[in-house]
Design brief:
With 486 residues, the protein is an alpha+beta fold. Helices cover 51% and strands 9% of the residues. It contains 21 helices and 10 strands. Strand 1 and strand 2 form a beta hairpin. The longest helix is centred in the middle third of the chain and has 31 residues.
């Protein structure tokens, strides 16, 4: 391991065993100072010491040199583990098969024009359910938003990438959705996360035996639902523009370009990542905007000035304040806050300064670089949408420039940046448009902020009190609320 960077005490990685400290608290207390001083640290994760960096020039070096700092996920690092059985070899974590998977999946993830009708339909149902739940809770108690957000995010992901309506919003308790809650609790158990060698002994640890069973149930159920989806049985020819990512994976499987194992792994990672990041970002939205009625009002005024209740991509992409708020959310609340999934293929010198032996695992902390005052100025930790500029064009230019220089990495950067970036931004703009058009909300006074302790970054168990915006009659939701009260 490098000798010119400090080592974070191993107990910091194990805090989750006895503490509920959030990532922000952990970072401020143990990581901020050494990372700011040295740009990188040695940190314990997944049963070994790794190099973690937040300095933009180090990040740029890492991202630009895929052949030296090769992507390699759990299927390489800890192939016997529960998490490896969940994700397999997929488009995000592979090095050897990355170009193959990209050639198959990229057209379905970066479509020239995504159909926004499912996004709008699911957003409306989501707001309906939020308001219905508020009636049940009464005026003084907030709605626990995460369960509904998860159902919404899975529904949108299915409609947009897998050609299936999981009906998570229309029907509660769908098993595929229930499994996500179980999987998230299972994977992020601190003991097994930091000592994955224990996963080799499911005959000793019954909880890990059950964990492997849950991962297999999810895989089989997802593949069965997708294979037998009603739309898959349609004999009507599809227009090429209507093809979704799942069709491309299915065609690649039929043509022998990928194996069944590779098909399943990429189907699962699409399901997991295409809903999880949106889910956690929406939790952050409810928290941050719930503290600021002024910001909500400004957003609502811009949205109402659009003059439509049926927005399309062109509508939301022209709204500058909405764009700046979304970019700022991704800066202060990057859902994938830390990732250590690269390994040096040969001895390397990171940024020309840190000598790293071959076969050393390296990664980054997006939250750290995004709140670094040397990168973002003295108000780096404050939520200030105006820092992005005044026009959409100006904001997009800053977005791209900061990504390239390693200062802004919510979607990674360079050749391995997230292929679903454009869709993720569109999805968030569409749901924010519908939410702010129809409701206002405040954080429940009884709620105290607690961020997740590791993995995905988001507020935990956020509760908000919602009110329907006066004068909104575009949906039948008012009638639904009346009937519920009666």
């Amino acid at each position: 391991m490098p000798k010119n960077i400090p080592r974070v005490p191993i107990y910091v990685s194990l805090l989750g065993l006895w503490s509920d400290m959030g990532q922000d608290e952990i970072y401020a207390r143990w990581l901020a100072k050494p990372l700011e001083d040295y740009g990188a640290v040695k940190i314990w994760f997944a049963g070994r010491w790794n190099v973690l960096t937040t300095r933009p020039e180090y990040l740029t070096d890492m991202f630009r040199n895929e052949d030296i700092y090769a992507k390699a996920g759990s299927q390489i690092k800890i192939p016997w583990s529960v998490i490896a059985s969940l994700v397999g070899d997929n488009i995000i974590n592979t090095h050897d098969n990355w170009r193959l998977y990209t050639s198959i999946m990229k057209p379905g993830m970066q479509k020239r024009s995504f159909d926004t009708r499912p996004l709008l339909r699911k957003s409306r149902k989501f707001v309906d359910l939020l308001l219905q739940e508020q009636v049940i809770q009464g005026n003084q108690r907030g709605v626990l938003v995460n369960p509904l957000i998860q159902r919404y995010a899975i529904a949108v992901m299915g409609e947009s990438f897998l050609d299936i309506d999981f009906e998570c919003l229309e029907k509660g308790n769908a098993r595929i959705e229930e499994l996500q809650t179980i999987i998230k609790r299972t994977i992020f158990k601190p003991l097994f996360f930091n000592f994955p060698a224990l996963d080799k002994y499911p005959h000793i640890f019954s909880s890990r035996r059950r964990a492997f069973g849950i991962m297999k149930e999810f895989e089989d159920l997802l593949c069965d639902l997708v294979k037998n989806r009603p739309r898959n049985r349609s004999l009507e020819p599809r227009d090429p523009e209507d093809l979704q990512l799942v069709h491309m994976l299915e065609n690649a499987l039929k043509e022998g370009k990928i194996t069944d194992k590779q098909y399943r792994a990429n189907l699962k990672i699409t399901f997991l990542t295409a809903h999880e990041n949106a889910q956690q970002l929406l939790n952050s939205v409810f928290w941050e905007l719930g503290k600021s009625q002024d910001m909500q009002t400004k957003l609502r005024e811009e949205i109402l000035q659009a003059g439509t209740v049926d927005p399309v991509a062109d509508t939301v992409n022209k709204l500058p304040y909405l764009t700046s708020v979304l970019y700022e959310f991704l800066r202060l609340y990057p859902p994938v806050s830390q990732l250590i999934n690269r390994v040096t293929t040969a001895p390397a010198v990171l940024g020309g300064e840190i000598s790293i032996p071959a076969q050393t695992w390296v990664g980054w902390n997006a939250y750290g670089v995004h709140i670094d005052e040397r990168v973002w100025g003295p108000k780096a930790k404050q939520f200030i949408p105006e820092r992005w500029g005044t026009t959409v064009e100006e904001m997009q230019t800053k977005f791209r420039r900061d990504c390239v220089r390693g200062a802004y990495i919510p979607f990674n950067a360079h050749t391995r940046k997230c292929l679903g970036q454009g869709f993720a931004l569109l999805e968030m703009k569409m749901v924010l448009f519908e939410m702010l058009r129809r409701v206002s909300w405040t954080v429940d006074p009884a709620y105290k902020l607690k961020l997740t302790s590791g993995g995905i970054l988001a507020p935990l168990r956020v509760r908000v009190i919602l009110k329907e915006v006066q004068g909104d009659t575009s949906n039948a939701v008012s009638e639904k609320l009346v009937s519920l009260v009666e």
